């Protein structure tokens, strides 16, 4: 893998290769091995033009657990604020030794542009580009689902895809890079995806996505999903015009205490009890109630922990792309 820009670039074999490699990395995160020397002498730069807690810190932890040197670059407080271009910024970082650039950018398509620009030789990982894609989030979500599927079936997770699982993705699809990456990857891995959202928060062209779309969350929940992925309402991208209102949103599309109780009493298509997923950060009281946010069925923190293993796998595969098949 030269870069990771989009889940559309991953076929089933590629996606399983990342998940299986992440499974091997999980032993390091489980502290059976504290650190691997796999990326000793390599430098990973976290280049963040937008805020982040989980993605930036877990990429940092992932790179360090593989013994890479890590440089954290935040656009705030850098020469970007003096008008320095992306080209000059990344060339400066490569001159300092960057072998891989993990970039979060407010502009949709920025990671692709950087990878195709020829400005640098370093591998590029898309850590979220505008409202477009967040491929490592989708991979860690798929990894989390697969761990639960394997446990339910009493089989090893390695090699397993998500065939048979039904996932409902709920809420602000319009502004969500997580939704697009997830729909594509879940479909590639054989899961069935239902998107439930208000019409005002669906993107143009969603008919072409490999999923069913409904405006009625309660109908989607009645279909026996294995996981309900609640998305953050991205008020900061709405330019002050949040429609429907917060109250109406919660009543119709929030995981309220009542909906959560019904979900807990139901069975999934393959899992005994459905999972609640959230990429974080959560808007408690808006898209998710406290009971669901704090429930043991909520995998939000498990997703964060799995994110380190998945990002170790991605960095390992990208920085060893000339030696595909290299064991971690
Ligand atoms: N899920 C996610 O991308 O979270 P952060 O914005 O905290 O990185």
From TrEMBL:
Residues 164-317 form the Aspartate/ornithine carbamoyltransferase Asp/Orn-binding domain. L-aspartate binds at residues 82, 177, 232. SUPFAM superfamilies: Aspartate/ornithine carbamoyltransferase. The keyword Transferase applies. It catalyses: carbamoyl phosphate + L-aspartate = N-carbamoyl-L-aspartate + phosphate + H(+). GO terms for biological process: 'de novo' pyrimidine nucleobase biosynthetic process; 'de novo' UMP biosynthetic process; amino acid metabolic process. Carbamoyl phosphate binds at residues 54-55, 104, 134, 137, 280-281. GO terms for cellular component: cytosol. Residues 2-147 form the Aspartate/ornithine carbamoyltransferase carbamoyl-P binding domain. GO terms for molecular function: amino acid binding; aspartate carbamoyltransferase activity. Pathway: Pyrimidine metabolism; UMP biosynthesis via de novo pathway; (S)-dihydroorotate from bicarbonate: step 2/3. Its EC number is 2.1.3.2. InterPro entries: Asp/Orn_carbamoyltranf_P-bd, Asp/Orn_carbamoylTrfase, Asp/Orn_carbamoylTrfase_sf, Asp_carbamoyltransf, Asp_carbamoyltransf_Asp/Orn-bd. Keywords: Pyrimidine biosynthesis, Transferase. Belongs to the aspartate/ornithine carbamoyltransferase superfamily. ATCase family. Catalyzes the condensation of carbamoyl phosphate and aspartate to form carbamoyl aspartate and inorganic phosphate, the committed step in the de novo pyrimidine nucleotide biosynthesis pathway. HAMAP family: Asp_carb_tr. Heterododecamer (2C3:3R2) of six catalytic PyrB chains organized as two trimers (C3), and six regulatory PyrI chains organized as three dimers (R2). This is Aspartate carbamoyltransferase. It comes from Micrococcus cohnii.
